[in-house]
């Protein structure tokens, strides 16, 4: 425990960095993913095309390259000075935009589980596409996509370590800082693993709780 108690300042900063990346990136991914997912099932060909292009282009690009584009290529174009806060914000954008593609596909798969007759009945009543999606389809789709959606967010949590290679403080970078203080790198990595396992178990518990609460009756 000495490696933690003797370096609480670094561990706390790293944990906060990971949680900020996870929650902020997850919020961005959820909002953007819902929009793109709706575009993927839209009756408008242009919307479907844009949604399909976004998912295909971003999802098939390595996350490391997405980080390179946001953290190193984007700041000069925008005239930004690469400070710690700017790097963190750009890292959140990279994680959110990348993860949104997986959220969109999970949403699309959930939409496909809703009987098409319900959407047709809603449109027959005069509801617009947006109303059909927000009032009829998405509430039912969310209940069926809880397991794949939680898998996406578990992957997001682990992907936060990629930010360590771009000068963003998080649990993935804690080994470098503690090595400078003479701590054993292997022990540090073991503790990082323990923390990630604990966080993933917490997300798994949340998944089971949501599934039990919103289980679809068969």
Summarize the biggest pleated sheet.
Answer: none
Backbone shape: flat
Individual helix count = 10
Radius of gyration: 20 Å
Order of SSEs: HHHHHHHHHH
Distance between the termini: 49 Å
Fraction in beta strands = under 5%
Rounded mean pLDDT is: 85
Uncertain segments = none
Could you give the count of β-strands? 0
Q: Which class do the helix and strand fractions yield? A: mainly alpha
Helix content: over 70%
Summarize it.
It is built from ten helices and no strands.
Overall description:
- The chain has helices spanning 2-5, 8-40, 45-59, 63-78, 84-111, 116-124, 129-144, 146-159, 174-179, 185-213.
- The protein has 218 residues and is mostly helical.
- α2 packs across α5 (84-111), α5 packs antiparallel against α8 (146-159) and α6 runs antiparallel to α7 (129-144).
- The relative contact order is 0.14.
